[in-house]
Amino acid sequence: MTSSPLTLRSATERWPIAGEFTISRGSKTEAVVIVAELCSGDIVGRGECVPYPRYGETPEATLAAIRAMGDRLAAGLTRQELQSVMPPGAARNAIDCALWDFEAKRTGRPAWRLVGQRPPRPLTTAYTISLGTPESMAAAASKASTRSLLKIKLGGDGDPARITAIRQAVPHAILIVDANEAWTEADLERNLEACAAAGVTLVEQPLPAERDAALAKIQRPIAVCADESVHDRASLDGLRERYDAINIKLDKTGGLTEALAMSEAARKFGFQIMVGCMVATSLAMAPAMLVALDASVVDLDGPLLLARDRDHGLRYEGSTVYPPDTALWG
C-alpha cells in the first residue's frame, strides 16, 4: 500500500513501422502513441493509446485531454468514475489502462485476477497484409505463409483480383479481410461473393459507417464484422440486422473497463467477438489480451508491424502471442 499522492505523467512517442502500413485511407511509416503513467511512490501504472484521425482525434488534443485529468486523478478519481467523466476514445483508454496497471501493482494481484478471469493463455493472432497491388499482396502473403491466420487489407476497386491472388499464394491460411469502409453498395455483393469464393471467413467493415444500412438488405454469404460502425455498448443495439460480429478495440471503447462490459453485452446480442488493435507497441496490446481470451478472432499484431517494440514486449512465436509479463503491464 502507498499513501503518496497520485501524479500523472504523459508523453507522445513515435515508433517506426517496418516498411509502410497501407489501408484504404492511406499509408503511414510510424505509429504515434500517447503513454499515460500514474505514479505514487515507487509504483507506476501505464497505459498506451493511439489517437485516430478517422474519429477526429489528434495526438495534441489527446495529450491535452489526458493531462486535463491530472487534478481529478490526484484527488482520487476512480476507474468507475472515469467512465462518466471522459467520453470513449483514445485519451480515456490510456488513463483507464494505467489505472488497471496501477491497481495491479499496488495490490500485488495480476490484472487477470482483478478482472475475475482464469489465468491467461497464449492466443492465435492474425497478421496483417497491407493494401497494394494483387501481385505485391500475394507476395507479402506468401512470405507470411507459415502464419495460420492472415488479415487482408482491401481498398475497393480491384479487390476481387487481390483476394483471388492472395488465396492462390496461400491456399491453406485462414483469411479474414478488412475493407476499412472502402466498398460501396454497388459493389458490395460482388466483393462479398469474391471473398466467399476465396474461402474468406470474415469481412470487416465493408461499407462506410454512415452508409451501412445495405448490409441488412442482402444475404451475407460470410460473416460481416463492424469496426468503424461500433464503439461502445451504446452503439450495439442498432447493428444487429447489419452485422454478425463486432471488433472491440480499446482505443474505441475508451479502455479495458468498457471493453470488458461491451464484450459481455455483445454476446447477449448474439454477436461474434473480434478483438483488434491499432498499430502500436505491446503496452497497448497487453490489456486487450484480457478481452481476447474469449474472442472468436484475435487481431493483436500491432508490434509485429513495427521496426522495434518497447522493452519487455509481448512474446510472439509465429501466429502465437503470449500473455504479458508484469514488467510490461498488469
In words, what does this structure look like?
A hairpin with a 2-residue loop joins strand 13 and strand 14. Helix 1 crosses helix 4 (90-107). Helix content is 32%, strand content 23%. The longest helix has 18 residues, at 90-107. It is globular, with a radius of gyration of 19 Å. It is of the alpha/beta class and 330 residues long. The protein has helices at 59-67, 70-74, 79-85, 90-107, 111-115, 134-143, 159-169, 188-197, 250-253, 256-269, 282-292, and strands at residues 7-23, 26-40, 43-49, 123-124, 127-129, 149-153, 174-178, 202-204, 223-226, 245-248, 272-275, 297-298, 316-317, 320-321. The chain has an 8-stranded parallel sheet. It has a 3-stranded antiparallel sheet with strand order 1-2-3. It has a 3-stranded antiparallel sheet with strand order 4-14-13, with no helix packed on it. The protein is built from 11 helices and 14 strands. It folds into 2 domains: 7-115, Enolase-like, domain 1; 123-321, TIM Barrel (Alpha-Beta Barrel). The model has no long low-confidence stretch (mean pLDDT 96). The relative contact order is 0.15.
Structural class: alpha/beta
H and E string: EEEHHHHHEEHEHEHEEEHHEHEEE
| SS strand fraction | 15-25%
- Total helical segments: 11
According to CATH, the homologous superfamily of the largest domain is Enolase-like C-terminal domain
User: What separation lies between the terminal Cα atoms?
Assistant: 16 Å
Give the number of domains.
Answer: 2
Q: What is the correct CATH architecture of the largest domain?
A: Alpha-Beta Barrel
Share of helix, binned = 25-40%
Spatial strand sequence of the major β-sheet: 5-6-7-8-9-10-11-12
Number of strands: 14
State mean pLDDT (0 to 100 scale): 96
Write down the CATH class of the largest domain. Answer: Alpha Beta
Shape: globular
Task: Tell me the Rg in angstroms.
Answer: 19 Å
Low-confidence sequence ranges? none
Look up the CATH topology of the largest domain.
TIM Barrel
Main sheet record: 8 strands, parallel
